[in-house]
Amino acid sequence: SRKELGVVLYRAYQISSEPLKFVNVEFYKDKAAFDAHLKTSHVAKISETFKDILAKDIDVVLVSPLP
After folding, report:
1. Statement: the pTM of the whole predicted model exceeds 0.90
2. Which segments of 1-67 does DSSP mark as H helices, in order?
């Protein structure tokens, strides 16, 4: 994902106090770049894998920069 066009930042973090919880922080050039990311084969593949191993669905929070 880090090498996709339109990706500005892609970092994964583990929550120190809850080692089974993770947060990905992803910045894209624009919404179109994010939408393209969601359509890649590797995202489709990992999404299928996640269905079998995650305790709950992934929460996606879209944010916009302040002016």
Report:
1. no
2. 31-38, 41-53
Render pLDDT for 3-33 as a digit per residue (tens, 0 to 9): 899 999 999 999 999 999 999 999 999 999 9
- Report how far apart, in Å, the C-alpha atoms of 37 and of each of 17, 24, 54, 58, 65 are: 30, 14, 21, 16, 20
Backbone angles phi, psi at 30, to 5 degrees: -165, 180
Per the CB < 8 A criterion, the answer to whether 37 and 1 are in contact is yes
User: How far is residue 8 from each of residues 15, 25, 43, 55, 57, measured CA to CA in Å?
Assistant: 22, 10, 17, 29, 25
